[in-house]
TrEMBL record:
Pathway: Secondary metabolite biosynthesis; flavonoid biosynthesis. The primary product of this enzyme is 4,2',4',6'-tetrahydroxychalcone (also termed naringenin-chalcone or chalcone) which can under specific conditions spontaneously isomerize into naringenin. This is chalcone synthase. It holds the Pfam family Chal_sti_synt_N. Keywords: Acyltransferase, Flavonoid biosynthesis, Transferase. Belongs to the thiolase-like superfamily. Chalcone/stilbene synthases family.
Amino acid sequence: MAIGTANPASWVTQEEYVDWYFRVTNSEHLADLKAKMKRICDKSGINKRHFHLTEELLADHPDFAGRAQPSLDARLDVAAAAVPELAAAAARKAIAEWGRPAGDITHLGSSATAPAPPSSAPTRLVPVERPIFYMASASQTTIPGTEHAITGQLRKGGLDYHIAHEMPSLVGEHIAHCVADALAPLGIGIDVDVDGGGGWNGLFWAVHPGGRAILDSVEARLALAPGKLAANRRVLGEFGNMAGATVFFVLDELRRARGEGERRGCEWGVAVAFGPGVTVETMVLRAVHF
């Protein structure tokens, strides 16, 4: 899509490099080594080199010139200031070439090759977080003896996928302990009373709507109040079962409902999805705004 690069503003031609290097490192007396280095540089095919370490900076840090000097802390301090600046410059170039607003970017990846790179560089470059939900805990449960309940095989005609008729009852039978296992590390029990509902109604719910009967089973088994699975049912009604992606549509529906002024809702909730095994994947989520 776009690539941006950036270099330090200071640079030295390769022709001048050897003299510059031996001067700033106070090594002019090493004539044989200098001559050897010049022969190497003459054959390198390099025209110039960019450096952040200017003569002024090196004068302020004479310990940088000696490899035996304990200068690592100071070097890392220099990198901590310089790396985010270069990253920002390169990012601005890439975004300009891309031609879209920086606000359209949703993720930031960072990689550095400097020794012990400053881990805070991405945060310093973009010091903002706009999460919707935090994942606080997760658990996985495999229901024994249910290998037949959800199966999928890729055949020459496409994906052959089957869901057994007992899936709703299986989900209903195991949903409570699956969610409880995910909540346990956080010390949250079913008596949670975040929004006044108490019990399982103290959570918001993003259940993979694999079918109406599955949602009905979860609602009945947990004695959920009417409307607790409204987002799940809306997604099922509008899109049907879209396999693994469906639960993200539910989360989006929950997010939109909060943004459109519906009741503040719960602080804590769960996202539950089902797959072959039968496996039940449960994530405990914490809403940023509730």
